[in-house]
Write a structure and sequence with these properties.
Radius of gyration: 19 Å
Mean pLDDT: 93
Helix content: over 70%
Order of helices and strands: HHHHHHHHHHH
Low-confidence stretches: none
Largest sheet: none
Length: about 260
């Protein structure tokens, strides 16, 4: 299994490395670095489906993980593509990165894109284990994982739709979105993204060696809470909305949905 993990991971990295190179070229032609966000969703979907295709385990299990990846990843990638790249959205997070970098911006973006490729490979290793599970029975843990995945995808889809609808209403310019799920957490989209990885962890535990999946939710939680998720998003929100967003921070849970503070 170790040889299979290493070989398939190498194939997977070659796939997403090539994809990120192409996206970097598109960024150079369009000056829209946020295309890497869409690439993250598409990259996750493609690499998991690729592992499902390469695996020699039970066909039903491989079909399940391929379908789950396709529905979740392609929806996420498409949403980010149409709202952040093809639309008129300007993502100030990348302005902050460029200001921090100072020089050699295109080369730094290339490294940033390949960092995303490496992260995609790192958090999807467990799918190689799942795709090579020979047992032709779907276990209770896998059904539970599918249930958590379903709730997570619905939650992420709803939160994205609520935010997009809020932003598209001119009357909300300069305001903070607190509708629907955004009333209970400042980042419902990030919370449900992390919950999807918890669903995959539960699903993977039914396969021998599936414990390796425990690293993915931990890595994703670190990235969302400390690196590219909440810190950059909230820094930009405070810059653009000031005290309105500080009050939102004071009253509303940062990550896990909960009731507002009085």
């Amino acid at each position: 299994m170790l040889n299979t993990l290493l070989l398939h991971s190498l194939y997977g990295f070659g796939l997403v490395f090539t994809m990120m190179c192409l996206l970097w070229l598109i960024y150079r032609a369009t000056n829209k670095p946020m295309i890497v966000d869409a690439g993250w969703g598409f990259g996750l979907a493609f690499i998991i489906m690729f592992y499902a295709y390469l695996g020699d385990g039970d066909v039903t299990r491989r079909f399940l993980i391929g379908a789950m990846a396709a529905i979740w990843g392609i929806r996420l990638g498409s949403y980010l593509l149409f709202t952040r790249v093809l639309g008129h959205h300007h993502d100030a997070r990348y302005d902050m990165l460029e200001k921090e970098w100072g020089k050699n911006i295109p080369f730094r973006y290339f490294l940033f894109y390949q960092y995303q490729a490496f992260a995609i490979v790192l958090v999807t290793v467990q799918f190689i284990v799942i795709a090579n599970n020979p047992l032709n029975q779907i276990f209770l843990l896998e059904y539970v994982g599918i249930g958590i995945w379903f709730v997570s995808v619905i939650g992420q889809t709803v939160s994205d739709a609520q935010l997009n609808s809020f932003k598209n209403n001119p009357a909300n310019k300069g305001k903070v979105c607190q509708v629907g799920l955004w009333n209970y957490t400042r980042h419902p989209n990030y919370f449900f993204e992390w919950l999807i990885w918890m669903a995959f962890l539960v699903f993977a535990l039914a396969s021998e060696g599936g414990w390796i999946a425990i690293f993915a939710p931990g890595i994703m939680l670190y990235l969302l809470l400390r690196v590219t998720g909440i810190p950059l998003t909230e820094k930009n929100a405070i810059t653009s909305k000031g005290d309105l967003y500080r009050e939102y921070q004071r009253t509303t849970s940062a990550f896990i949905p909960w009731f507002k503070k009085q």
